[in-house]
Amino acid sequence: MRTSTRSLTALLAVVAISAAAAGCTVSEDKDKATAGAGSIKKIDALAGKSIRVGSKEFDEQLLLGQIAIVALEATGAKPVDKTNITGSDNVRKSLTGNAIDLYWEYTGTGWVSYLKQTKQIADPVGLYDAVKKADEPNGITWWARSPANDTYAIVASSSAAQKTGVKTISDYAALAKKNPAQAATCMGPEFKARDDGFPGVEKTYGFKLPTAQTHLLNDSIVYPTVGKGATCSFGSVASTDGRVAAQKLVILEDDKHFFPVYNPAITIRASVAKQYPQLEQVFSSIATKLDSKTLTTLNEKVSVGGEDAKKVAKDWLKANGYVS
Amino acid sequence: MTAAPTTTVDPQLGRRVGGADSALGRLRARWKGLVIRPIVLIVVLVVLWLSVHGRQLDSIEARSLNRHEITTELMDHIKLSLASTVLTIAIAVPLGILLNRRGARFIKPIGLGLGNIGQAVPSIGLIVLLALWIGDGFRTALIALVVYSTLPVLRNTIVGLESVDPTLIEAARGMGMSRRAVLGRIELPLAVPVILAGIRTALVLTVASAVLATFIGAGGLGGGLVVGLGQNRPILSVTFGVMVAALALLADWLGLIAEEVLRPRGM
């Protein structure tokens, strides 16, 4: 059995990566924020109280989760790291089922996926207010809307964008109708399954991509695959993902405004929110600083630069004077 | 284990003597034991169908739980598992034989070592890394599955051949049989049960691991499973999970049948 050195290296790399992953634990004290040293002040009611912070499994969520954890440390609380839960619905269930206390959710996801609303609200603030109100009966409080919009987006590889001249999703839909072979699209399982994902795009833009041109991949593989442009010329991405720029992907304009606004905001169990109302101000002041550009830059550090999410979170909070 | 097998051919009849000792005869003798598993599997699948059928499905569930989607995923899964098993056997059995020849004894540990690496690598890491390296799709999934399931077949081929009684080989050589004839007529037939046990292990591994093919655009029953887990739709995870398990048990059962048919007589 002859194995080229390259594949052996690859195999060894996998072994090394898995070994490293196995050895990853929550980094204690080493980079723990000192309570009250920055603009986030100590909150006496929270001293030593454990708050369980969750997140979904992708880099932006890991980063947002760590931002919340570092901020909580600065208030003197003892946050418990429960981040990296796979699948939006599972994180939400953890929150409603009292397995975690808070996590960053997106307004659009809350509206469409959990509250099962079909009415489109284009105004970000209006959507946030509507979600906040509709989620109250479920015992969930929404706080601290960030202006960042991590919307789903359809992207084209830079070569496909040049070759086909597709700029909007309407152009893409026309291409899919006229020449499906050229419109091969890679997408993640969540985007393929959700109503605010591909099924909704097809319905709104009035086309049906043949199964042969629909490639289901894990989200993390969508980016490099579309970047290479071999299997797919188009793909589903999260607009603030650091890999969009890294792979030179071109975001197509959602000209029919199908995708709702996805502003990250803190969702917290109502009982915890009532107990520690001072936390709202802490998260609000952080959220307003997190616009799309900032979030994308931070994401890029984690996804492309390979930096540790907690470190990136802490550096950013430090740079903005929240902690020191 | 009974005494060494003797090939009794009745000169008058020109056929093997001993009905219960021929492959079909043996199957007939054991059919009651062999028929239990498919019956249980059919019952489980019918119960599953009855409990899922007629449920109110939401849009996410309906997209995975329909005849077209299930058939597509099932066919992809079967194709991938079959191709992978055939390739694994085609690679690992000859390799095991080669590594067991006198001249190659010193590289045996290397061969087994490579097989060990293949199995030690987390399959999901392997499949994703391969996809990033050589692209996505069926071919990549196939390579990953073969790398992953080569070891049990390779190891069992080597162990099976090693466990053949050396006195038998010497006797055969003494009768003037060539090395090749000894391999084909003595060693391999005697090693068949052990080799087949390895192939059965590989089959079950392959069917189970083929779930990961969905991550790299190669389809399979992992599709419904991943949506079920990610979107918190237990009806999907249970349905597709049970289907994968049933398929693995069915593959294992086919291996059992093959064992019954191919086992040398008298063992």
TrEMBL record, chain A:
Q: Which residues form the signal peptide?
A: 1-21
Q: Which Pfam families match?
A: OpuAC (PF04069)
Record keywords, A-Z: Signal
Cellular component, GO annotation: ATP-binding cassette (ABC) transporter complex
Molecular functions (GO terms): transmembrane transporter activity
What the entry lists under Gene3D superfamilies is as follows:
Osmoprotection protein (prox), domain 2, Periplasmic binding protein-like II
Q: ABC-type glycine betaine transport system substrate-binding domain: which residues? A: 49-318
List the InterPro entries. Answer: ABC_Gly_betaine_transp_sub-bd
Its recorded name reads Glycine/betaine ABC transporter substrate-binding protein
